[in-house]
Amino acid sequence: MREAILRKSIKKKHVYNIMLLSFLITTAVYIYLFFNQTVTVALPKAVRPDGPPVYDRMVYGGFGPDALVKPMDVAVIGQQIYVTDTMNKRVQVFEMDGKPLAKFGQEGKGPGQFRFPYGIAGDSQGNIYVADLYNGCISIFDKQGKFIKYFAENKPEEKVIDSPGGLRIIGDKVYLSEIRRSQVTVFDLAGNKLMELGKIGTKPGEFRAPNAVTADKEGYIYVVDTANSRVQIFDKTGKFLRIVNGSEANKGASLFVNPRGIGIDSRGRIYVVSNLTNYVIVFDRDGKKLFEFGGNGAANTQFALPNGLFVDENDRVFITDTVNQRVAVYQS
């Protein structure tokens, strides 16, 4: 009897030791995974690499006087998000997680002042270029928001630039859409004019109120020909190549209604804002429609008169949602 009790006690102790050992092993593995999850847990960059981008987050200004009012354009410069806060006549700066950092600019016609800040871009040194549609100039600021100089002219009265809208810096070139002139101008970073594209009209290679422009890594130029409801593509020498409007073979009625912002991701996909339909429409390199996303509303995946669009080096897509007073961020 005594021996049976002893054997039973030893068996229980053995089972207990096994359970304890299993618990310790499981705990050790859990702790390892917890503190090393950035290495061992790799989330995919996109849920559907060939499908629409995935909503990530919203960027808002503060409350009351700190809120964004009609944000027109957005750009990532360095590790920060810059937004033209147009009706407040200023630029707002945010961290990548959306935390407000700084503001610069005020209403006026003088250096560092704005009347209608529109396009925004940054160079490799982190300087910020802001196109002011109503003052008819591009102002350059340093990283702290201090005015440095006007781009391509000593003062706006020189009229080298007249009605700047869309603005992008790709490599060592500055691409600018001139809305009133119905023209696109390409400069070097020193402000020397390299090329002019287009004139007012409806024929291929002509524009009416182009609101945005960008270029891809091969130097192809993409112009949002707003009043003609289309995108036009040119080679790096300025030769007209084709029209994109979302219709079958791009020869029918346009899907765009008041197209605005444009961006190209690393796969060559073309993102275009259709402002009055509240959608972003995406095309392949040849202009074939792939998909669209958005729709009218205030939900996270909807827009109310979206305008500017920027794709960063990590294929994050930033869209200014003017009426909703925010910037939507997607991961493609």
- Widest beta sheet: strand line-up: 1-26-25-24
Instruction: Describe the main β-sheet briefly.
Output: 4 strands, antiparallel
Helix-and-strand structural type: mainly beta
| Rg calculated over all Cα atoms | 26 Å
What percentage of amino acids are in beta strands? 35-45%
Quick overview:
With 332 residues, this protein is mainly beta. It has 2 helices and 26 strands. The chain is globular.
List key phrases describing it.
four-stranded antiparallel sheet, mainly beta, 332 residues
What does this structure look like?
- With 332 residues, this protein is mainly β.
- It has helices spanning 2-35, 37-40; strands at residues 54-59, 71-77, 80-85, 90-95, 100-104, 106-107, 113-114, 117-122, 128-132, 137-141, 147-150, 164-170, 173-178, 183-188, 193-197, 212-215, 221-225, 230-234, 240-244, 259-264, 270-274, 279-283, 289-294, 306-311, 316-321, 326-331.
- The strands form 7 sheets. The chain has a 4-stranded antiparallel sheet, with no helix packed on it. The protein has a 4-stranded antiparallel sheet with strand order 2-3-4-5, with no helix packed on it. Strands 8-9-10-11 form a 4-stranded antiparallel sheet, with no helix packed on it.
- The N and C termini lie far apart (73 Å).
- 39% of the residues are buried.
- Residues 18-47 have low confidence and may be disordered.
